[in-house]
Amino acid sequence: MCHWSFASNFFSYHTDCSQTEKFGWLEATHLLSPATQYIRDMESIYSKILDDIMDAQEPNGLCLTMAPKTRHMCGQLHDIITWCGIVAPFPEILHFYYDSTHIFEKLFRPCVNYMEYIKTRENGSIEHGLGDWGRDTAFGNNQANIKTAIYYRCSRYVEIMAKVLGNSIDQSRFRAWAHRITKVYNEKLLVTDKKLHPYSCCTSRNDLGSQDRNMFTQALALQFGLVPEKYITHVQSASLDRGVNVNNKISAEEIGLKYL
């Protein structure tokens, strides 16, 4: 069943509704692309998807949530970094798995334009769009944690592209960009005062002041390397402790599950 669901996507793009809707949601590309090449050679399709993303990119730099653009999405569904942001890590997937860098030169400027667009939407962290899609409500659900982490990852991948292309100025620029995001992430989302819990932990901004410390927010920060070294064991303890508090149930959905 899984094999044929994947195969139904292989004609030209990933989609989350492989039997019915058939829209080119980049959410599905973000979630499936790191694993799909383990069952098929995906280099040509991935290169084609990147061409679709560039074709659909808006003049202000925004990469859309759907490519090819088969319909116009409004409101929160128009700009979601967890979907649109695949433009930055996708070239590195081609590099890592296929030793292919031919796409870097073509994608570098669109990636920079996207990052410069996202910078106009940030307040240090990124909090617009959807959160952990499918869990409770899609809005106000770990948005700052997910989106700021993806923002950080995008800056790192653009830094890698600049390095491969021999662009030392942009390499330094995006390294500094990533460091700034890390600093803001920890200022807003890492709690170190131990007033409510006997350890430092990551919290969401779902309910300011609650220090909810769910397992997913700890895992996300650890997986992305955003936790300062001296707090890593604290955040690990917070995740385990929270698991005990919820009867050892894993609570995450479409975006968060793979990190947890």
Automatic annotation (TrEMBL):
Coiled coil: none annotated. It is an enzyme of class 3 (hydrolase). GO terms for biological process: carbohydrate metabolic process. Residues 1-260 form the Alpha-L-rhamnosidase six-hairpin glycosidase domain. GO terms for molecular function: alpha-L-rhamnosidase activity. It comes from the Eukaryota. SUPFAM superfamilies: Six-hairpin glycosidases (SSF48208). It catalyses: Hydrolysis of terminal non-reducing alpha-L-rhamnose residues in alpha-L-rhamnosides. Its EC number is 3.2.1.40. Keywords: Hydrolase. Pfam families: Bac_rhamnosid6H. PANTHER family: ALPHA-L-RHAMNOSIDASE, ALPHA-RHAMNOSIDASE (EUROFUNG). This is alpha-L-rhamnosidase. It comes from Bipolaris oryzae ATCC 44560.
